[in-house]
Amino acid sequence: MVVINSQYFPPILEFIEFALQISLSDLHHRCDVSIVAPQRKPNLKPPELVASSESLDALTKRLAARGRIAFDTEAASFHRYIDRVYLVQVCSDSDIALVDPLAVQDLSPLGDLLADSNIEVVFHDADYDLRTLNRDYGFVATNVFDTRIAAQLAGEDSVGLGALLDKYFKVTANKKMQRADWSRRPLTEEMVSYAADDTRYLLPLRDRLSKLLKSVGRMEWAEEEFSLLEGIRWTQSAKDEQAFLRIKGAKALPRRALAVLRELHSWREKTASSLDRAPFRVVGNSALIALAKETPSNLETMQDTDGIPASVVKRYGNELVKAIKKGLKVAPNDRPSVTRSKRPLADHAYDRRLAKLKTLRNETALEHKMDSGLLCPNGTLQAIARAAPINSVQLLKVSELRRWQRGVLGDANILSAIRNDD
Predict the structure, then answer these.
(1) Alpha-carbon distance 21 to 37, whole Å?
(2) Superfamily of domain 243-334
(3) Which uninterrupted H or E stretch holds 183?
(4) N or C, where is the chain less crowded by C-beta within 10 Å?
(5) Do residues 50 and 97 touch, judged by C-beta distance below 8 A?
(6) Considering Cα of 384, then 387, then 393, then 399, what sign does the dihedral take?
(7) Sign of CA dihedral 81, 82, 83, 84
(8) What whole-number distance in Å separates Cα of residue 419 and Cα of residue 416?
(9) pLDDT tens, position by position, for the chain (422 residues)?
(10) Residue among 321, 190, 336, 311 nearest 257 (CA)
(11) How far apart are CA 100 and CA 89, in angstroms?
């Protein structure tokens, strides 16, 4: 019997882990299989419901000490006109909590966590969360790991959170909760369970995907993508006066009906805003199109109009009649029309450059067993073709092109495709 001194256990275990990683990485490259190495288990504690500043302060102090947290938010745009954060979910290896922004007015302690570069914050599909947190609270993040981006670059077939949780943890997400009204209080047990599960598995999922990225040599790609998330900010969209034209069926209407549709759409926006209700929950798009076509002049004819629910007539009938009459009074010359955008003049040199770049991208993606759009989206190729750089310095100025994409495609190959455009 051989007795090994316990002081040698850690080095031996580290060596065994290193050897296993090398073997598994080689197996992955040879056999194209996914690696699922042993990782920390999910935090299965019941979530703490945080509804006071004191509880939030205590929670964030504990979270800050852990060095990494999972983060998620819930909104209610499917139900409300005003989109805002209605719930924040946070999780560490020791804590899991749901923070109620309706009860806690000052969420700045959470913002401090996001801004701390020493704390890694794990999201799944961080873009929307970061934009809404910036819009509502001015928060910015400095050290993000996005499991959706990681899954894409690691070559996962499905990158939705539900699919990843099912694959790695055999957890089935409650899909109906995706459209739950997160503005309602109190939250149901079902909502609490769903919200907690959105973060409780993110840290162990992050560990698995990180191992996989390292094994296929793509961790640097992911880190570059993660760093770009730090620059995400909310940008206010200008008021769109032509939004009514994007309603399905609008562009087929004559100008007289379009004038009516514009008034109906304007009335719906104002009503939805005053009620803080999603516009389609006031009157649906198909009903607006039907009213614009038929232009009923009173409640009786409106009731007989196909596609108009009786509840809409009862609740909003008189206001809808007023909007219809207002639209009908618009002078012919002032009625809206559908403007067809002109096709740009042909640029054959640009087209040839773009075609060669797509060929390069597609062949390279095939070699790396990647989706071509993931390796380099068409928008990035179009930006390169438009810029037509003649050297690496000029290529560097194409902001859409990532460093890792340049590394995979190769500057020489990109520039060759651009030069040989005749």
Answers:
(1) 9
(2) HRDC domain (1.10.150.80)
(3) none
(4) N
(5) yes
(6) negative
(7) negative
(8) 5
(9) 444 444 444 444 444 444 444 343 343 433 333 334 445 778 888 999 999 999 999 999 999 999 999 999 999 999 999 999 999 999 999 999 999 999 999 999 999 999 999 999 999 999 999 999 999 999 999 999 999 999 999 999 999 999 999 999 999 988 889 899 999 999 999 999 999 999 999 999 999 999 999 999 999 999 999 999 999 999 988 788 899 999 999 999 999 999 999 999 999 999 999 999 999 999 999 999 999 999 999 999 999 999 999 999 999 999 999 999 999 999 999 999 998 878 888 999 999 999 999 999 999 999 999 999 999 999 999 999 999 999 999 999 999 999 999 999 999 999 999 986 55
(10) 336
(11) 9
Return the H-helix or E-strand segment holding 107: none
In this structure, which amino acid lies at residue 117? S
Each domain of the chain, given as residue ranges in start order, spans 1-33, 48-229, 243-334, 348-419
pTM: 0.86
Fold for the domain defined by 348-419: DNA polymerase; domain 1 (1.10.150)
